[in-house]
Design goal:
Length: 97
């Protein structure tokens, strides 16, 4: 499987949505044995714990790119749950510091 091609396609899709606001990319890394795909240092997939669903009828794993998108979306949903709702910066005067 060409993981680099898939990562490039995913990065292009995100760039098309965010443009210059893009602050992170998908990254493929390997040490020759272990392979991983991360987004902003969050592991999305690794070769040791491949969590793709097995399709009994087709006798193969679910397609890789849709799997990465699904896991990415799950991670984003989890991050949304811990989003800070306070956006005001407290005011400090020089005497209180």
């Amino acid at each position: 499987m060409n993981y680099i091609k898939i990562v490039n396609e995913l990065n292009e899709e995100i760039f098309q949505k965010l443009g210059e606001e893009l602050e992170a990319n998908f990254v493929y890394s390997t040490d020759g044995f272990f392979e991983a795909i991360n987004y902003a240092e969050i592991m999305i997939w690794n070769s040791e714990e491949d969590e793709r669903e097995w399709d009994e009828e087709k006798n193969e794993y679910e397609p890789f790119k849709p799997f990465i998108k699904r896991i990415f979306n799950e991670k984003v949903e989890k991050l949304e749950k811990v989003k800070f709702v306070e956006t005001e910066v407290p005011f400090y005067d020089e005497k209180s510091i």
